[in-house]
Amino acid sequence: MIFLKTRVTKIALLSFFSLFFSFSIYAQEGKQLFQQNCQTCHALDKDLTGPALRGFKERGPWGDQKELYKWIHNPASYLQGNAYAKALQQKYGAIMQAFPQLTEKQIDAITDYIVSAPAAGQKTDGGDGAGAAANQQGEGNGSLIFGVVSIILAIIALILMQVNNNLKKLSDDKEGINRPEQVPFWRNKVYIALIALLLFVVGGYYVAKGAIGLGRQQGYQPEQPIYYSHKVHAGVNQINCLYCHGSAWESKHAAIPSLNVCMNCHKAISTYEKGPKLYNEEGNEINGTAEIQKLYKYAGYTPGKPWDPSKAKSPEWVKIHNLPDHVYFNHAQHVNAGKVACQTCHGNIQEMDVVKQVSELSMGWCINCHRETKVNFFNGKDSTGNKFYSIYEKFHNDVNAGKMDSVKVADIGGLECQKCHY
């Protein structure tokens, strides 16, 4: 029969919508997974804490996807029998964190993103901020075009279904087959049910996604009263994070440094001359010397004259990293006791001019870290490690007996609710 059956057409329409949403979600999944799990230590085109990832399939054993699964799921175990992985550890001074929670399909999605991601363009006069804005605009335009094309295809599919029904009616009339009048598609209960189901699924997905993201500020990058470049201070001048945020070593809060800390250096440094050019997020060049003058105004300092700190007025810095009030987080416990690097949570701060929130800082993100991070256990043989953990005698005995190869934060209560929630 030359005409398509109505049931087959409906199935084809359902298959189209299923394929559309599956493709849409999968197309974004690799990039999202990369941002959530990889970009703290890796970039595509330059070495960070770990090596640049573009072209990694041509290096070492990673051309075999199964070898990549083994490496990502358990780097410590894989390291023992692979010379290339050992060389990476020696070069970068650390071993990659394990990601057993990533499925093979998710690893494939990350791999596809790394392989297919466009190469980084040349920097323009607008600086990194303008480039990032252009990339975001390009991604937004691509998503808009994809959405418009999908809607057009859906409309065409509905029109074809209606045409098929009309042709079928003409055929039946010609053959003398008496069939009831066709119900218009806008009154057809099957169509209405399909559209309602589709809207329910799509709406539920975006509502759930939005609800999960409530209170999260990943990517938040506010403008500050003084343009302070961490790239210049922590990167170019190699100022240790704890020089300005010393309370992170011994208290719950990292705290914002007082003007006394700033003026320790800037009583002698009044101009910005030898550092790299500074740009804001709109691509406009920043006058570093003028920003130092803003600092002097807040501090009530006149170059060449004695400084009276009592006249200082602190700038109204905008807090970037916020946690819910019911969440307990202690910087000293992580930085001092746990030896966690600042970049683990805050990203490559030494490469940022304007600081932004890199990690999502969600409960799942923290729990995954606790599951994978090894405790800095005290070793009595060479007196290294944190002596606090010497009280965990059972774990020491299990490690010595070979029952455990290491102790994770989760093993000592890192997943208990009351550890982080009041």
Task: Please give a structural write-up.
A hairpin with a 5-residue loop joins strand 1 (about 280) and strand 2. This protein folds into 4 domains: about 5-15 and about 125-210, no CATH class; about 40-115, Cytochrome Bc1 Complex, Chain D, domain 2 (Orthogonal Bundle); about 230-360, no CATH class; about 375-420, no CATH class. Residues about 1-10, about 15-25 and about 120-140 have low confidence and may be disordered. It is mainly α. The radius of gyration is 29 Å and the shape is extended. It has 16 helices and 2 strands. The chain has a two-stranded antiparallel ribbon. It has helices at about 5-35, 65-75, 75-80, 85-90, 105-115, 125-175, 190-210, 230-235, 240-245, 260-265, 290-300, 330-335, 340-345, 365-370, 395-400, 415-420, and strands at about 280, 285. Pfam families: Cytochrom_C. This is C-type cytochrome. It comes from Flaviaesturariibacter amylovorans. Keywords: Heme, Iron, Membrane, Metal-binding, Signal, Transmembrane, Transmembrane helix.
What separation lies between the terminal Cα atoms? Answer: 70 Å
Radius of gyration, CA atoms, in whole angstroms: 29 Å
Number of DSSP strands? 2
Can you list the strand order of the major beta sheet?
1-2
Strand and helix map with partners:
Elements: H1 6-37, H2 65-73, H3 75-79, H4 83-92, H5 104-116, H6 127-174, H7 189-212, H8 230-236, H9 241-244, H10 259-266, E1 278-279, E2 285-286, H11 288-299, H12 331-337, H13 342-346, H14 363-372, H15 393-400, H16 417-420
Antiparallel strand pairs: 1-2
Helix pairs in contact: 1-5, 1-6, 10-11
InterPro entries: Cyt_c-like_dom (IPR009056), Cyt_c-like_dom_sf (IPR036909), Multihaem_cyt_sf (IPR036280)
Pfam family, one: Cytochrom_C
Domain Cytochrome c: 25-118
